[in-house]
Fold these 4 entries.
Entry 1:
Amino acid sequence: DAGITQSPRHKVTETGTPVTLRCHQTENHRYMYWYRQDPGHGLRLIHYSYGVKDTDKGEVSDGYSVSRSKTEDFLLTLESATSSQTSVYFCAISESGQPQHFGDGTRLSIL
Amino acid sequence: AQSVTQLGSHVSVSEGALVLLRCNYSSSVPPYLFWYVQYPNQGLQLLLKYTTGATLVKGINGFEAEFKKSETSFHLTKPSAHMSDAAEYFCAVSEAGANSKLTFGKGITLSVRP
């Protein structure tokens, strides 16, 4: 939707391994966001970007890092995955900050 | 700080019945308010939004919501439920401004009985 591609769509990995999720947009929007969705918690903001190389922390940023070297790509990295990071991860984009448009998600399982 | 409360986790209605999903918010400044819908294994889709102006907002698929400042509410309604409305619904709030963050409620699952 809205020119957003998340990859991979599904991933299973082991505790302690590094994991990188990619969000790619074709809309040339300035703002990009990473959320995680967990039952009973709704969506919680991990990190966001307001321009190339400009990022900031969200509500649940511990254990995650991000990078944005190009307008179209926003990467989310789990340096050393833990079981508590098993979740569904959503990328969102926005031209002006609101509203946000979401990708289809990445289902990440950490065993 | 801003927050959203969606009471209950599940609502069940009969096809053709009124849909009412409640949302109350807390914000120290005038809020922007949103309703999103999520179908199984999909991302969130914007249903409607309130920023400024008319307090009754119409969205897609026949849904509407009314911003009531005195009640700090933004309830979502649809006069007649359809089977295709079965999904999870999220209310969200943000402050005005480009760098403001979106805070979501915990979501509510709508089931529609034939």
Entry 2:
Amino acid sequence: AQSVAQPEDQVNVAEGNPLTVKCTYSVSGNPYLFWYVQYPNRGLQFLLKYITGDNLVKGSYGFEAEFNKSQTSFHLKKPSALVSDSALYFCAVRRTINTGGFKTIFGAGTRLFVKA
Amino acid sequence: DSGVTQTPKHLITATGQRVTLRCSPRSGDLSVYWYQQSLDQGLQFLIQYYNGEERAKGNILERFSAQQFPDLHSELNLSSLELGDSALYFCASSVTHRGEKLFFGSGTQLSVL
């Protein structure tokens, strides 16, 4: 079954340092992969997606993600973390179902803490 | 603001009761998705509607049902509520049924006592 895994429950980083939030996927065929962010008491917000093309995808708020087919990974990165980046981050995959519909399946989430 | 409106924001009820959660999608979006978020289960896909028709079904219990109306708003009905149904219920919308970018509402926090 198509799924994503986020191996870290929590990531801690100092402000100004680069950050990486990890995601691995298990998908047959070409994956449609996404990153979403959830701030406290808010719904999820779309950050970026990979469908095809360049392996480095740029998204909102200075985030980017690198698609690596050989390692089946789609890690989220940012060159310089901000305290305001502290939030819950979800990796997701779009799964095609047998009725021809689609559903987006989310990972367990990784909580990012950026310390001033 | 995502443009997706969910009401009510909070709901407290008792076991065995029935509640209705409401979602208005972004203007122009034809597809509505329902998700349940809890600490132990994470974010679980429940069901998707596109232009009034059910398109995809996830881990939705038989006690739960949903529909999308002609004006594209959607309702999620939860009946015979149990303590374990306490969770944050999100609605999301997208332009197409392909789910390439979802816009989420702020959620309805359901507490079953």
Entry 3:
Amino acid sequence: TQLLEQSPQFLSIQEGENLTVYCNSSSVFSSLQWYRQEPGEGPVLLVTVVTGGEVKKLKRLTFQFGDARKDSSLHITAAQPGDTGLYLCAGGGGSQGNLIFGKGTKLSVKP
Amino acid sequence: EAEVAQSPRYKITEKSQAVAFWCDPISGHATLYWYRQILGQGPELLVQFQDESVVDDSQLPKDRFSAERLKGVDSTLKIQPAELGDSAMYLCASSRGRVASPLHFGNGTRLTVT
């Protein structure tokens, strides 16, 4: 059974601070996606990484896929209150297009 | 941008009653998923459809849950009878089904079983 472990589970920081969220597995994934979910809404895709060692930047967010395609990280620079939400990583490896989600990191950015 | 539509938005039901949720995916998306999400945790896959066929229902509690996508478009998830532990957010998502295709989620149905 493939599992994705996310850490930390909760993170509360002040506006302007930097943070990193981790997503780890003992399994290899063909792709990894990061989603952000706000209360009462469905998750929204932030990025997809498919190549080991790949780094993608989305404004203040930097995503990295591990060389062995077993882990990923999300780094946010100068966090803002609007970044508050549940960050989910999801690994894809099956031919059916199914995704396995981690339990998420709940981020709170205080003004 | 087209969205995944789900209804109802909220549902309160008593235990042992039947409840049904409806999902209309983005047009042209062959793959449809139903996920269950406990508050503050990640979504757990219940069932995945490719067109009208079930491709993965290994985590669906089949003694009480059923799902169908008769014409390969919209889908219904049913629970009968509902139990207290079924209280959760039920999310529907769709995708083109290719490897690494993003999932597009609806805003879910929040179920409370009393």
Entry 4:
Amino acid sequence: NAGVTQTPKFQVLKTGQSMTLQCAQDMNHNSMYWYRQDPGMGLRLIYYSASEGTTDKGEVPNGYNVSRLNKREFSLRLESAAPSQTSVYFCASTPGQGNYQPQHFGDGTRLSIL
Amino acid sequence: KNQVEQSPQSLIILEGKNCTLQCNYTVSPFSNLRWYKQDTGRGPVSLTIMTFSENTKSNGRYTATLDADTKQSSLHITASQLSDSASYICVVTTGTASKLTFGTGTRLQVTL
């Protein structure tokens, strides 16, 4: 059982380039999330999708867009990458929006912007 | 502002020893508190989830405690193993599954 799969695992971009990070889950979960993890800081929510067809901003949405392609897939797009977006990006999913549900995380995409 | 503070930032212990990690939070309203384990290069994995009415919850050699009055939690690891080397992250939920405040983690290294 793969759980949450993120691609690619590593990527280096130049400032101004665009890129889409992919995430897919095979647990039939309704809700999906994108976080970024930076040194010395806790994970911060970028965007989330409570259910198929809906997306909402999190704590740090500027510079990003998302697409909930279907129930399984939730992508994160950087339209014009900036060095401040160098980070490790994690996708997560939960069965729904109930507050007692553990989040299942992928293994991350390590993104460097030069 | 909601905050979750963890201590120590890092810890080194000998294999077989016990250790306790601390978490203090100023989050309102409080829904539940979670501990996650994050191995190097991997995503976080849930260890425990506790509501305000649960004082203790165990998962194998991991035991989490919660004092909702003082807004403190601890994670106790018994008889540590090399595989326990990881970062341990305290997370407090304020509402729905999208309302999480993450601590910065305690990095634990277990050595021979």
